[in-house]
Amino acid sequence: MKSKDFGETFYWGAAISAAQTESAALANGKGISIWDEFCEAQKGFFKSKFRIKSKHHLNYSSDFYVHYKTDIDLLKSMGFKHFRFSIAWSRILPEGETINQQGIAFYQEVIQYCIDCEIEPWVTLYHWDLPAALEKKGGWTNRAILDWFALYADVCVRHFSKVKHWMVLNEPSVFVGAGYFFGIHAPGKKGFYNFFKAMHHANLCIGYIYRIIKNINPDLHVGSTFSFTYVESIDAQPKNLKAAKTANLLINRLFFEPIIGLGYPKEDLKILYQIEKHIQAGDVELMKTNLDFIGVQTYTREMFKHNALNPFLKIKQVPAQHRTNELTAMNWEIFPPSIYHVLKMIDNYQTGIPMVITENGIALMDEVENGVVRDAQRIEYFKNHLKQVKRAKSEGMDIRGYFAWSLMDNFEWAEGYHPRFGLVHIDFETKERTLKNSGHWFRSFLKTDESQD
Ligand code: GAL
């Protein structure tokens, strides 16, 4: 397999997000985000009470805020021409209202440095770090989020006019599910009521913000990213097949179908009728968005079975560690065909919208030994997943790019710093950067004509 097999115009990139890499949580006028607050509020001595494993805190991450030039240099040295990162909303509008010029200046510098290095910036507006001041007013459960987001997007698009590629949201199903239903991510809210409201507002935001950006400049390339997972039943028993169907609806359909104009899949899951009280006239049309690209983020396969004890959904996930030894440091199954199946599932909707894989990668417990990180398993993961992408492309699916998650090790949300996703190793004490063997592999893959099978 050669990188050229994917076509001359294929976008090759690596991705990060602000909250996971920047540190500098309060530097130069930045306001507090819900993730800053979530990390701060860890109380108690008992591990079960920690919100984040080992009580890790996002403020001691990779210091991208200081080392961004080194990181962009490393990205370039691997042969990538595209860089996906996000903007911290609370650096731009600390309380959600007034502009912080120092925050604007920071991202203008990052963007200019990318351009000087001939790297195309791909910017995500929202990668989960809402200003805490807006969460106090209800955050994603308050429909006013549309106005707050509109102001934020307007400020960003006008000040960062050199950016051509924008993404509205990062994985709404994950930040709404984990943050407003299970309460395991910031802001730690729970229950169906919060979930349905936050979900509907997130879906509306995609359509609303897409249109705002296009109004400012119709030539901008605007998408949004979605989490997709290949879902299967544990076996062929009808009740388990039904459970897998429900899981697939929740994981893959619920946050995607409204955007491509199919509305909420209420017919297939009656509890979704509860969303109706949050839907206003015109909402269905507003959610329907002819995005310029669908950001596909996918990592693994999940399996489900029937569970009579689960009152509403009747499903139970069968954890990967109960069924395979092919596991990442997140205990996610390594199953390369999953990316092919996900691409095919999206392709089957026949939306006519191109796909860009905006995240795919593997967490390991990497260590530096004599200046080298031997992450052979990561090289295998990328090779095998890219072969599946190539397979999908050869069947005619419209896939325009691939971004590795992640450029560097970072703060993995509730899992803290132990699972490492980077092509670049970070020593979180000294902030020293070491290109892993997988980074060297990408360098050969992207910069030479030799096959990298
Ligand atoms: C995605 C998320 C990233 C990263 C990755 C690995 O859901 O967008 O921020 O954490 O998963 O878990």
Overview of the molecule:
This protein has one domain: TIM Barrel. 35% of the residues lie in helices and 15% in strands. It has helices at 18-21, 34-40, 64-77, 89-92, 101-116, 132-135, 145-159, 172-180, 192-216, 238-253, 283-287, 337-347, 376-394, 437-447; strands spanning 11-15, 82-86, 120-126, 165-169, 221-227, 230-233, 293-297, 301-306, 315-318, 355-359, 399-405, 424-426, 433-435. α3 (64-77) runs parallel beside α5 (101-116) and α8 packs antiparallel against α9 (192-216). The chain binds beta-D-galactopyranose (GAL). Residues 17, 20, 170-171, 174, 227, 297, 359, 405, 412-413, 421 line the site of beta-D-galactopyranose.
Task: Explain the layout of strands and helices.
Layout (H helix, E strand, L loop, with lengths): L10 E5 L2 H4 L12 H7 L23 H14 L4 E5 L2 H4 L8 H16 L3 E7 L5 H4 L9 H15 L5 E5 L2 H9 L11 H25 L4 E7 L2 E4 L4 H16 L29 H5 L5 E5 L3 E6 L8 E4 L18 H11 L7 E5 L16 H19 L4 E7 L18 E3 L6 E3 L1 H11 L6
Parallel strand pairs: 1-2, 1-11, 2-3, 3-4, 4-5, 5-7, 6-8, 7-10, 10-11
Antiparallel strand pairs: 8-9, 12-13
Helix pairs in contact: 3-5, 7-9, 8-9, 12-13
Bound molecules: beta-D-galactopyranose.
Shape: globular
Strand and helix order: EHHHEHHEHHEHHEEHHEEEHEHEEEH
The neighbouring-strand order within the major sheet is 1-2-3-4-5-7-10-11
The CATH superfamily label reads Glycosidases
Helix content: 25-40%
Tally the helices: what do you get? 14
The radius of gyration computed from the alpha-carbon positions, rounded to a whole number of angstroms, is 21 Å
Give the structural class.
Answer: alpha/beta
**What is the CATH topology assignment?**
TIM Barrel
Instruction: List segments where confidence is low: pLDDT < 50 over at least 5 consecutive residues.
Output: none
